[in-house]
Amino acid sequence: MSVVCSIHAGICLTGQSLGKTPAGRHRAVGILSSASAKTEKPNAELWHRFLKKERQGLQMKIIKWRNAYNTGIEQFDTDHHKIVDLIDTMFAAMRDKSSREVVEKVCADVFFYIDYHFTNEETAMKAASYPDLEDHIAEHAGLKTEAERYRTVIMTNFPAGVPEFYRFLRNWLLHHIQVCDKKYVPYLQKNIEDR
């Protein structure tokens, strides 16, 4: 009996699909094809561990939000959560070896939302008379420039650059929130209290 029959038997035994990603399907084939040639039954323990990991992988956050990332400014914390979700989506697209069109869409979503967030953040800092506004705006401009560079690399030589772009976004965002954004918090909170 072939691996295909073993896979079919695995699906029937569990009532689950094999996996949502090519990598997941490959792991499933490996688990099922390692079944005994005589019994043609998949290793149930390995199979259930695989399914559990696949289900977790579909729901798992790559960037785990920590309280240290909260600024205490609700609007911007909400924005930061959304950006983290978009970066997680970028990771999923990379992990799943998604098509160029999918990666382009994810990039467009990331760029749109970051621009939206930066505009709102800069407006709030200006209204609060934040003294380091120009430096913060320069930090935002630097991200946009570097992100555009990665986007060009990705789109001209797909899929090269996708993992680096993901890592750049993740590292930049977490550093930016914890270091740069935390500096404006007292000014924005005072401005909110004074209204």
How would you characterize the overall build of this protein?
- The structure is a single chain.
- The chain is mainly α and 195 residues long.
- It folds into two domains: 57 residues; 128 residues, Four Helix Bundle (Hemerythrin (Met), subunit A) (Up-down Bundle).
- The chain has seven helices and no strands.
- Helix 1 crosses helix 2, helix 5 packs antiparallel against helix 6 and helix 6 packs antiparallel against helix 7.
- The termini are far apart.
- The N terminus is likely disordered.
Layout: helices, strands, pairs:
Blueprint: H1 3-14, H2 22-33, H3 44-59, H4 74-95, H5 100-127, H6 133-156, H7 162-194
Helix pairs in contact: 1-2, 2-3, 4-5, 4-7, 5-6, 5-7, 6-7
